[in-house]
Design goal:
Immunoglobulin-like, Rossmann fold, eleven-stranded mixed β-sheet, four-stranded antiparallel β-sheet, 27% strand, globular
Amino acid sequence: MLFFMFPVGAVVKLSAFIGDNMVIQRNVPIHIQGWADAGETVKVTLNGQSRQAKAGKDRLWTVRLQAMPHDGPYEMTVQGKKNVITVKNILIGDIWVCSGQSNMEWSIKDSKNPTEEIANAAYPNIRLLTVNRKMSSLPLKDVETSGWNECNPQTIANFSAVAYFFGRALHQQLDIPIGLVNTSWGGTNVEAWTGMSMMNTKTEYKDKMNVMSAPDFPEKMLSPAEKIGPNDYPSLLFNAMIAPLTYFPIKGIIWYQGESNAHNAYNYRYLFSDMIKNWRSEWKLPELPFYFVQLANFRAPTLYPQDSDLAELRESQHQTLRLPFTGEAVAIDIGEANDIHPRNKQDVGYRLALNALAKTYGKNVSYSGPKYRSMRIDGNKIIIEFDYAEGLNAKSKYGYLQGFSIAGADKKFVWAKANIEGTRVIVQSDKVSNPVAVRYAWADNPDDANLYNSAALPASPFRTDAWKLSTQR
């Protein structure tokens, strides 16, 4: 449903996603969309192709052009009966949607080395689009945005740092135009970003979804007395900030979110997977790449092993790798104890880009740190096997592993000694003679965890037990 109308005899209008300096997704059919009078014929011409379409009763029209390889810049004309629109400086390349909460929203100017990064951000073939914050009780057909910009020192300062460092790495390695669409909102939960078609199937959200379907719900949202926030009802952000984008082909998605779901960390494994499935369904791209950031270390380090909602959230994120065409950027080594917004967004963007380069673009690059594979008990020791284990090493001035804990059947974890033997880690403690479980980096802030591989990528936190977690209801 659209919440705006055009007067009789209105001029042709383009979707806000389409404009000067934009990137169009390469190698797939091109969608150009907008509004005109019902029944009006609209003609689109781009790079020697001309196609036309009629606006429907809802005044929406969509012209589809044949796929094009990466190239540009081009001009496109859109002609209706009353006006002609010329869209300039178009590139054909790859579009990545960049979404989540405040760590995706976090700007270049507030990140590490901002003066240097801004001064060096002269990449005319990287294009930037920021979607304005907005909520809606129903899926919209258009986003609100100030338009596409070329990436340069004048336009980059307020753009998403993670998105930029990700896109820069892709552009440098692939030498193709990259479009980055930042659609994020700080402090938001995953339910707000999941579409109604998925959330309507969840019995625990039935009451809220029923309220959203009431005819007067949009008016309630606009009422100052109601003061509805983005987390109060599911789908509010998907409807306004994602749904309108699903009309346009893209290459993939990067995601940095989870802090706002830490209280419900165990269920996040289902909610997050459902969101990914929902987005792929709405884009009609079942193999749409989706790469995410595992939460960084945060809060004060603890003296003894204990429960951690952030560790449980990281586990839920990690389990999402069971979905195909997903990837994880581990960030437990770049956080800050006193700030939930680490300034080092360079490594975050780069690690996301490694996933994309390897999994989406087929480049021969290492993209993952060590990942737990299996364990076996050998007397008073537990032997851990890893994937991505080439060149296991302890990144520490002391030269030994830290961050491992071990427990017996009593489920009481104590810090453990850990030694590397080839692609394995041997874990033991004098305090546990009959061990049954090991955990690694299982803390809000596992700042001492230091297991890496030869690619200088950190191991993902893990546990070998299946004991009930603190957020498991």
